[in-house]
Amino acid sequence: MPVKCVICNKTHQVGFKVSHSMRHTKRRWEPNLQKVRAEINGVVRRVMVCTRCLRSNKVKKVVS
């Protein structure tokens, strides 16, 4: 399953990890995704949504 928010399409970011001796090695920052049951276009589906979208009520969470 891809690491991507279904609502805002937020994905990973890339950059460098910088050690104390200033060596640069590649690293990734993953978004904080949660697997939730959400109602999208009237259909209840289990989707991966970032916490920013959950907090700002961009997705309607379904409680069973």
Salient structural properties:
mainly beta, 64 residues, Ribosomal Protein L24e, Chain: T, single chain, two-stranded antiparallel sheet
Sum this structure up briefly.
Helix content is 8%, strand content 47%. With 64 residues, it is mainly beta.
CATH topology: Ribosomal Protein L24e, Chain: T
What order do the strands of the largest sheet run in, or round the barrel if closed? 4-3-5
SSE order in H/E notation?
A: EEEEHE
Largest sheet: 3 strands, antiparallel
Report the principal-axis shape. Answer: elongated
The gyration radius over C-alpha positions equals: 16 Å
CATH architect. name: Roll
Distance between the termini: 24 Å
User: What structural class do helix, strand and pairing data support?
Assistant: mainly beta
The count of domains is: 1
Counted beta strands: 5
CATH class: Mainly Beta
**Could you tell me the strand content as a percent range?**
over 45%
What helical percentage do the residues reach? Answer: under 10%
pLDDT below 50 for ≥5 consecutive residues: which ranges? none
Count of separate DSSP helical elements: 1
Q: Output mean pLDDT.
A: 93
